Amino acid sequence: MVIKQAELDIVCGVTSKLPDTGMPEVAFAGKSNVGKSSLINGLMNRKSLARTSGQPGKTQTINFYKINGEMYLVDLPGYGYAKVFQAEKEKWGKMIEKYLHTSKNLKAVFLLIDIRHEPSANDRQMYDWILHNGYEPIIIATKLDKLKRSQVQKHLKMVREGLQVKKGTSVIAYSAETKQGREEIWELIDSLTGTEEHAEEV
């Protein structure tokens, strides 16, 4: 996918009506501080369109980024941050569940996991929850640049086993620093959404 145009098009809060965009959507879920905004910026070739924050739990909305006027990357609120009140967490959970249940255009859900650590109870719960909502999550193991090359396969195995992923589940290692994994993610998105490969960026 060559990015000619990327923009934050729709922002949905807890009380917002979810849009019917009429275009293919892929959603990104992940724990606060897992590098979700950095990944989305990397995919869009933008430095700061998706807002990164030093304060985990800051994203409290569902953000729809329109790509080339033909599809959306959807950023779901981060989960698992202790300082957010339980009532707020429940609201966000209901908002994400409503989106997974009602979107007519959602083609896939990517779940981001920090490759350095064993998946947490929150990660496992989110993986099972996405499955329960009828989607088979594609796993993106972030922060690849924080590991030595010799550690990568061992840690990918730890992620797979920690989540008890279904056989055949894609697990893609990604680095926000080097953009390793970006092309692989876009190839998957293109095949899932039916968006065609474009000619080289002008």
Brief account:
This protein is of the alpha/beta class and 202 residues long. Helix content is 31%, strand content 20%. The model is unreliable at 198-202 (pLDDT under 50).
Strand and helix map with partners:
Blueprint: E1 6-12, E2 25-30, H1 36-44, E3 62-67, E4 71-75, H2 86-102, E5 106-114, H3 121-132, E6 138-142, H4 152-163, E7 171-173, H5 182-193
Parallel strand pairs: 2-4, 2-5, 5-6, 6-7
Antiparallel strand pairs: 1-3, 3-4
What is the topology, as strand order, of the major beta sheet? 1-3-4-2-5-6-7
Q: What low-confidence regions span 5 or more consecutive residues with pLDDT below 50?
A: 198-202
- Proportion of strand residues: 15-25%
Number of strands: 7
Tell me, rounded to a whole number, the average pLDDT: 88
Largest sheet: 7 strands, mixed
Indicate the overall shape: globular
- Head-to-tail CA distance between termini: 13 Å
Descriptive labels:
5 helices; alpha/beta; disordered C terminus; single chain; 31% helix; seven-stranded mixed sheet
Task: Give a verbal description of the structure.
- The protein is an alpha/beta fold.
- It is built from five helices and seven strands.
- The longest helix has 17 residues, at 86-102.
- The chain starts with 5 loop residues before the first strand and ends in a 9-residue tail after the last helix.
